[in-house]
Amino acid sequence: MTVLDDRALNRATLARQHLLTRADASVPEAVAHLCGLQAQEPQEPFIGLWSRLTGFAPGRLDEAMTGRAVVRTHLMRRTVHLVTAGDALAWRARHDAMLRGRVLGTYRRELDGIDLDEVAAAGRAVMADRRPRTMRELVEALEDRWPGPPRRVLGELVVAALVPMVQLPPRGLWRQSAGVRNVPLASWLGRDIDPLPAGDGDPVGRQLVRRYLAAYGPAAGADLRAWCGLSGLPAAVKAVRDELVVFRDTRGRELFDLPDAPRPHPDTPAPVRFLPAFDNALLGYHDRGRIVDAAHLGVSVAGHRTVLVAGRVAATWAVRDDRLRISPLRRLTALEEDTVRAEARELAAFLHERIEHIHLDTAA
User: Fold this and answer.
1) Distance between CA atoms of 120 and 44, rounded to whole angstroms?
2) What is the DSSP code (8-state) at residue 333?
3) Where are the beta strands (DSSP E) in the chain?
4) pLDDT tens across 92-112, in order?
5) Residue 104 CB: number of other CB atoms within 10 A?
6) Ramachandran angles phi, psi of 36, nearest 5°
7) How far apart are CA 297 and CA 142, in angstroms?
8) Which residue intervals of 115-200 are DSSP H helices?
9) Separation CA 278–CA 237 (nearest Å)
10) Whole-angstrom Cα distance, residue 66 to residue 27?
């Protein structure tokens, strides 16, 4: 069985994530290929798409959101994601049990003794008029019946788990600051979410496996679970195994992949890329060693924006006032510094016309 080292896995990841070469794709096509973008920080998907798409303009994502081609909703890992309308409708029911379980796991004491189905029915009844509501407004309509849980807990239960919701624009639009207003997913898109198919075949799970591998493979079952948060996919992997090729990593883990998916040569040059906070390329795996060194794993969950140099996380970056500041995590060569500054100038022009200074710190 072929063994793939971290460098081979790195180049495969970059290729699948459109980080080796920017893709000439529409916003809905890119969001669909990536299986969504993590989006709890509303402006970050713009950076993620700019780093992945040729000639990306922010208005293209704005149009996709206002045109209802993509939506902001709780999905993978109970995190707000930007996903296509089709994927939101097709995947939501398969995520329901996980979403409920994660809210209960976080607030088990506060929600003890509460009938979740009753809360869900009440939440749907409140939202049946299709009027957008903030979480506070929704909770105010429910708290007389369930006065025990803290408002925040009751709100998260309904919005993030029990009633499939969309966060409406202008939340998430380019350079706009707007609070969260929720409306049922089915109301916003004009059709009900797809019910789970009867029987034991789990076609949605099988689709998730294939789609994940197209955007993240080669990957292990633990990586798939880390990406979506679902615990019931081993059977789906087994069901499609005959369609897949199998490798091992240097630690002996079994890795699955689609036969015709790109796996570039490990020596393929990798360009500098500036990534947003909580980027897919980092959070889409249980084992993130293919893209970030063990000493710097914390940056992937701490909300730091990162810089890929030679395919790996080599710096963090931030914008303060009129300055784009880059903080290396290792010493960069003179050539690497030049390429980082060149890409930073392009990023500065994209982000804000008033960014006047690019500062590259000295590595510690």
Assistant:
1) 31
2) P
3) 3-4, 37-38, 70-74, 80-84, 165-167, 182-184, 245-249, 254-257, 273-275, 305-309, 312-320, 323-328, 357-360
4) 999 999 999 999 999 999 999
5) 16
6) 95, 165
7) 41
8) 116-126, 135-142, 151-157, 185-189
9) 26
10) 13
Written as one letter, the residue type at 172 is G
What's the DSSP call for residue 161? Answer: I
297-303 CB contacts, 8 Å cutoff, 24+ apart: 299/329, 303/41, 303/277, 303/278
Distance CA 57, CA 55 (A): 6
Edge-first strand listing for the sheet containing 70-74:
37-38, 80-84, 70-74
157 phi and psi angles, rounded to 5 deg: -60, -45
Bridge partners of 312, per DSSP, are 309
Tens-digit pLDDT profile for residues 38-94: 999 999 999 999 999 999 999 999 999 999 999 999 999 999 999 999 999 999 999
The Cα–Cα gap between 176 and 170 comes to: 7
